[in-house]
């Protein structure tokens, strides 16, 4: 149910929370975790009033800090991994698209059951567009889920693929970089204290040397990393990721890795002495985002180059002190491959599409709602259908946009449907946390990660809703 105004919110929370000299105090956490919390999260996402939406987000973020839930950077853990002090697991970075509250709750339930601490919530630049979620909103939803499930400790939220558009960059470099900087500003303001800067789209393989092929990649990467460092909240070192191989393109190699990292580090030190560099490196090993749909709508098998993944991850740790290599586009890989990532000391793995597929494929998902979405997508995005592409292929690659096109209707599905699908998603997170060996990583996280509270500002939350 949507609130009509801020006073209605305050009245609904009477006796549960109060303010003492502008400081929020939680009087009854158990009562807060009932339907009133769900209502706050709903309003933080879809209320049309900036004042109501902003206050809902402000309360969720303030309550989280009061209960010991701290949006944090994973930098300390990754530095320890780069020093060889911690190993044996692969951090899952989970993209939050559809049913975000239910998916985040499922992730926190799994973390609590397994004593996991090394896991990341993330949202890519492109996903912000087609799911109609911005950083300030998603962070509130994630923290609301943590409150609901009783989670405490660091919460890692990441900006995934803060990516340079190569065509736009070629037309107007300054404008494209300015837009990326604005995205970084918004991400940090929203508690995204982990940011993957993707300038790999600027790699030019037509150049004669590997350094020249990578030049725009590391030069723009340094510029954006410097900007991140300028905006960091006091006491927080944001974990920044770099990338040498655009996902879905040519596989990466050692020459590219060293050309990028050597020149990136040298240029960053020259321009900002003592600045912290990147903590991990994304590479290409043969995957593609979302997988490759076949004519019948199933996904083609992937020939993933595990040797490259192992070798480049090892070099990045031993020669450069990074946490290791990052694997993108892995969500739809066969289940029997996931155990290999921690065995090969892969630092991080990004997972998105399978959760989307499970949501649409759930027996609980209403058939009439699904057909309504698909009919709309066939009409609105007809120009994106390629020659020779089947309807199944088109729907597979396009249905992610349904989360934004029908955002309010997703949020307003019955509680039974949403929570039922959430239970199904939890079985997947249980599987992933097990195979990626992040069970019992909470102690390592608490030991290495700096928890620095950044208190929300009500006016800023409201402004972000306009």
Describe this structure in a few short sentences:
The protein contains 22 helices and eleven strands. The protein has helices at 6-12, 29-32, 35-46, 50-66, 75-82, 100-114, 125-131, 135-149, 166-171, 173-189, 210-231, 254-271, 306-318, 340-343, 353-361, 367-380, 391-398, 402-405, 407-411, 415-435, 442-448, 458-464; strands at residues 17-20, 23-26, 69-72, 91-95, 120-124, 153-163, 194-198, 239-243, 280-283, 325-327, 348-351. The strands form two sheets. Strands 4-5-6-7-8-9-10-11 form an eight-stranded parallel β-barrel, surrounded by six helices. It has a two-stranded antiparallel ribbon with strand order 1-2.
Mean pLDDT: 94
Which percent bin holds the helix content?
40-55%
CATH fold title of the largest domain: TIM Barrel
Domain count: 2
What is the number of beta strands?
11
Strand order of the largest sheet: 4-5-6-7-8-9-10-11
Which CATH architecture of the largest domain would you pick? Alpha-Beta Barrel
Calculate Rg over CA atoms.
22 Å
| Beta content | 5-15%
The termini sit apart by 21 Å
Q: Number of helix segments?
A: 22
What's the CATH first level of the largest domain? Alpha Beta
The low-confidence runs, each spanning 5 or more residues with pLDDT under 50, are 288-294
Biggest sheet character? 8 strands, parallel, barrel
Question: From the helix content, strand content and strand pairing, which structural class follows?
Answer: alpha/beta
Task: Characterize the overall form.
Answer: globular
Superfamily at the CATH H level of the largest domain?
Answer: Aldolase class I
